[in-house]
């Protein structure tokens, strides 16, 4: 009897029906947490590492596909790194950012487009990553700014790995 009743209540909650009495809702609230209809904004973690899958001095992952409203958190797993936006590799409606060395920084995404990120001390070693927001295409001039050769090579690799070039 009780099993049958519980199953019926679960079915009602899953289909979004409002349960009949306050007493029943209160009793079953914990078990019947209704899934939110809207997709919640996500947080994506990016580690700043001395050594990772892509070699030394790297972000991991070095490519993140995200949506407007999501947050990227750069975590200083190893010392000596930061994360900052690169001039001319930033969508118009995305504010530039620059984290301090050894400090975590959170970046909220406010515009679709591509964001190029660099570690200031290791830009010359190619420590860069890309955030793609809302599946945006690569701007024609994305790699045309002045940058170290290894950084440009790393960007080209990241785009190729993700079939964006
Ligand atoms: Cu670095």
From TrEMBL:
The residues listed in the UniProt record as binding Cu cation, with positions renumbered to this chain, are 81, 119, 122, 127
Task: Provide one Gene Ontology cellular component.
Answer: periplasmic space
User: Where this protein primarily resides, as one coarse class?
Assistant: periplasm
Q: Which NCBIfam families match?
A: pseudoazurin
Q: What is the lineage of its organism?
A: Bacteria, Pseudomonadati, Pseudomonadota, Alphaproteobacteria, Rhodobacterales
Cofactor remark: Binds 1 copper ion per subunit.
Under which name does UniProt file this protein?
Answer: Pseudoazurin
Where does this protein reside within or beyond the cell? Periplasm
């Amino acid at each position: 009897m009780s099993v049958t009743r519980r199953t019926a209540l679960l079915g009602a909650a899953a289909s979004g029906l409002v349960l009949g009495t306050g007493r029943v809702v209160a009793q079953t609230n914990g078990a019947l947490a209704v899934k939110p209809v809207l997709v919640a904004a996500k947080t994506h973690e990016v580690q700043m590492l001395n050594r990772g899958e892509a070699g030394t001095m790297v972000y991991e992952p070095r490519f993140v596909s995200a949506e407007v409203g999501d947050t990227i958190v750069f975590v200083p797993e190893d010392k000596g790194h930061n994360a900052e936006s690169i001039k001319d590799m930033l969508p118009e409606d995305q504010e530039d950012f620059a984290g301090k060395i050894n400090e975590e920084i959170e970046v909220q995404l406010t515009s679709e487009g591509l964001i190029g990120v660099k570690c200031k001390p290791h830009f010359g070693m190619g420590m860069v990553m890309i955030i793609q927001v809302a599946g945006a295409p690569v701007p024609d001039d994305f790699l045309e700014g002045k940058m170290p050769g290894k950084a440009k090579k790393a960007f080209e690799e990241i785009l190729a790995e993700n079939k964006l070039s």
